[in-house]
Amino acid sequence: MPKKKIIAFAGSNSKQSINKKLVVLASEQLKNVDVTILDLNDFDLPLYGIDEEIENGYPEDAKRFNELLKDSDGILISLAEHNGAYTVAFKNIMDWASRIDGMVWKNKPMLLLSTSPGGRGGASVMELALGKFPFMGSDIIANFSLPFFNVNYSEQGITDKQMNIEFIKAINDFEKSL
Q1: For 121, which of 31, 44, 71, 145 could close a Cys bridge (C-beta 3.0–4.6 Å)?
Q2: What CATH number is attached to the domain comprising 44?
Q3: What is the pLDDT of residues 150-162, one digit of tens each?
């Protein structure tokens, strides 16, 4: 049986993204899958606008992102939060993808993560995604928010014992759904 293909990425274009660190850590826990870690910086997209779409059509990188999602068996995202919402980089790629296919997430199993240096762990952006993504074709299997990233994260895992149990459970639930 071929390995399942997972697309994993952070909803951030920061080169030092803590959400990328979290999504990589989560992807390393998965077994018997092929994980492709995407970086939003590798998708050169103009700021979405209807005038841009009418004048130039869909950018090749938007089409490529859409195809990567379509060809995957599951999606793992760690959402960064800017002012209580998605980052501009994530919102822009999601907007372009939604114009190609309104069911952006292709009804694929999804694990949603978020983290921040503060005590809410990206709770506001997580709430947005949990409310919006199902209308865009997501099958959210589990979600996990990690507060106080700089205290609770290490490259070996989540340092808080109870949070690590919740993190591993979310990953295992996602993996079982594949």
Answers
A1: 145
A2: 3.40.50.360
A3: 999 998 999 999 9
